Amino acid sequence: MSGLLIVQTGTTHLHGDYPAWFERALGRSMPVVRAHQGEKLESGLARFRPKGIIVTGSPLSVTEKVPWMLELGESLLRVEVPVLGVCFGHQLLARVAGGGVVLNPRGREIGTVSVKLTPAGRKDPLFAWATSDEIDVQATHLDAVDPVPPAATILASNENSAVQAFRLSETIAGVQFHPELSAAAMRDLIMSRKEKLLAEGRDPSKIEVHEVAAGKILRAFAGSL
After folding, report:
1. In which band, very low, low, confident or very high, does the pLDDT at 65 lie, cut at 50, 70 and 90?
2. How many structural domains is the chain composed of?
3. Catalytic annotation on 71?
């Protein structure tokens, strides 16, 4: 039985692609199911028998409602191991659980930002390491969860996105931000979106980026398996 299975939902050429981001953050190699390329979650479960699943971010949007996305989401709700959705993964879980995903009317969130833990968030195992109600995280997204799924408990929020983290059950949770991203990767992501940011009236060089402790979320998730 393997430890963690990465479910990849898109691809990037920055810093070695999405699975590599998580491998660096956790200091280990992990098997990957490339759902965006047609690989089925069920085949990965049978082959690797993981104790937990992390669903990656993606340049794609859950609002596209592509069949493989919804099929994957439904499968994730049925698995018998813990699931952590990150960014796209977070949004996908929200949608299939009865919530919504929209183009955020507050605009793009990118860089190092602060999110505030709710009382439930302060008690949640994912954030047991946090020493205050506010934590800094690395974020890059245009879409946001709205509304939150009926069964979900919000764990963190900020002015840009009311649902920065949520828990659906004891075994399924999602975070809108990227606990796997280093400051260096965040800076490169910002520069890769330079033209779009300039068109939005933002100066990429002035977007705040610094190292954060949010990677402890991944270690908390992995350590609970």
Report:
1. confident
2. 1
3. no
178 is catalytic: yes
- Catalytic pick from 23, 36, 87, 109? 87
Whether 185 shows a pLDDT value over 90: the answer reads: yes
Q: Which domain holds residue 87?
A: 4-223
Q: Can you give the CATH number for the domain in which 54 is found?
A: 3.40.50.880
If we measure between CA atoms, which residue out of 174, 141, 140 comes closest to residue 156?
Answer: 174
Tell me what the pLDDT averaged over the chain comes to.
96
pLDDT class of 104 with cuts at 50, 70, 90:
very high
